[in-house]
Amino acid sequence: MTTLLAILLLAIGLATGFFRSLATTAPPYLHSGWRPIHGILKRRWRDSRVVLLTLLACGFPISVAFRLTVNGWQIGNRMGTFVFIGVGLVVAVSFIHFWQGRASRGWQRTAPLAALAVIVMGGLTAASLEPIRGTYKVASDAQSIERMGIETSLWTREWLGPGNRFTGDRVNRLLLAGYGRQDVRTKINRGVYAARAFRRDKLGSDDFYALARSDLDFLLVDLRLTTAPPVLGFYFEPWEPQQGTRLSAAELLKFNDVKDVTRTYDNGYLIIYDIRGLHGEP
Question: Nearest 5°: phi and psi at 31?
């Protein structure tokens, strides 16, 4: 509710401050009615930075719309950080020139402060499924990033070297790429996504062939994935076929019985399998 109220207040601020923000940079002789906007449309302004930031604020409703979609929420989440630079300017102009006016008193002073407090809290609540960080959660993006996964990724960079071809679940791929500097892959082979190899109790002939024909060096298995269903609905990719279905330990540990696959790292929860032997590599 706080997030929705903050978005509503921002929408009101943008609606009442957009044209006023543009008018602040219009030439002085255009000072009444819609004349400043006509001047801006004719490219008559004093400060291009104000115009740029005001137009940038138009990206805020677009970012909100993206965050309501499955495939676009990542784009919307990242857009919000940048467009809010322009939103801050437009909302500030709205408060000063529309809501407070020249002689503000009473509610005109307190209401903007209360609105700003709600907007700040809305930013905190919208930043994550749980604004206050708790314990590790399965497939929950920020809530899944913790010290154990980071240390494992750092270990790969120190002992295996950067640039190895890895695959695993989505969160650990991000950690391997960021902290381990590894070359992470979402696919095992052409048209074969990682979820297919991890999602079965036994490695079928087709999956074995895909791994053998791939150029992957290592697989990272996280046994913590078996402790709960994925918070976001998927472990590997949003389009995985068994989305929402809980993984089992048998599915993840089946690589123990695959010939030429060795376990090169194991801390009790995170396991790294070396599959270079499947390609005939030492």
Answer: -125, 5
Coil, strand or helix at 23: helix
Residue extents of the structural domains in the chain: 2-126, 141-279
Each residue's pLDDT expressed in tens, for the chain with a length of 282 residues: 888 898 899 899 899 889 989 888 888 777 777 788 888 888 888 889 999 999 999 999 998 888 888 678 778 888 888 998 999 999 999 888 887 766 666 676 777 778 888 888 877 666 655 556 678 999 888 889 999 999 999 999 999 999 999 999 999 999 999 999 999 999 888 778 888 889 888 888 888 888 999 999 999 999 999 999 998 888 998 877 777 778 999 999 999 999 899 999 999 999 999 999 998 765
Question: Do 80 and 4 meet the contact criterion of CB atoms below 8 Å apart?
Answer: no
Handedness of CA 106, 108, 109, 111 (dihedral sign): positive
DSSP alpha helix (H) spans, 24-106? 35-41, 48-56, 59-67, 73-94
Q: Are strands 192-193 and 187-189 parallel, antiparallel or unpaired?
A: antiparallel
Sheet of strand 262-266: strand arrangement? 183-184, 165-167, 218-222, 270-274, 262-266
